Amino acid sequence: MQLTLAIIKPDAMEKRLQGAILQRILAEGFEVVALRQTRLTREQAEGFYAVHREKPFFDGLCSFMSRGPVVVMALSREDAVRHWREVIGATNPADAAEGTIRKHHASSVTENAVHGSDSQENGRLECGYFFPGVELL
After folding, report:
1. What are the CA-CA distances from residue 34 to residues 4, 72, 112 (Å)?
2. pLDDT single digits (tens) 77-121
3. Catalytic residue selected from 52, 104, 105, 115
4. Which residues contact 4 (CB under 8 A, 6 or more apart)?
């Protein structure tokens, strides 16, 4: 079994999509091993996205992610990282495949409804960032 981190971002929360997204997660065969709703501080957002610190979109991304509540989830299943990224679709909703979460719920590259880990290693690291000290598997 693999872990991946999912985040329902502020734009999806503002549209009250968390229930629909959680239902999709369960329908795709994921086990939700940890879940909490929180509001990221600016410092938490900067820490989580530190890998992007030198990129031009960093400031806007951190402002966006700290503007309202999010739901963070550690998800488990076989091939979790690849499968979750397939379910959420491309970062740009215009490029996302039909039937993906971003195709249906995202409005832009920045406000794209959900986050998904991009590798197995990052899945473990990101889950640890939001659920420190919690045994997830």
Report:
1. 11, 8, 22
2. 999 999 999 999 999 999 999 999 999 999 999 999 999 999 999
3. 115
4. 74, 75, 76, 80, 81, 84, 116, 117, 123, 127
Domains along the sequence of the chain with CATH: 2-130 (3.30.70.141)
pTM: 0.95
Return the structure tokens found at 15.
């549209």
Q: How many Å separate Cα 82 from the centre of its chain?
A: 13
Closest CA to 45 of 105, 135, 136, 130: 130
Distances (CA, A) of 83 to 24, 40, 134: 12, 26, 23
Active site residue 115: yes
Q: How far apart are CA 52 and CA 45, in angstroms?
A: 11
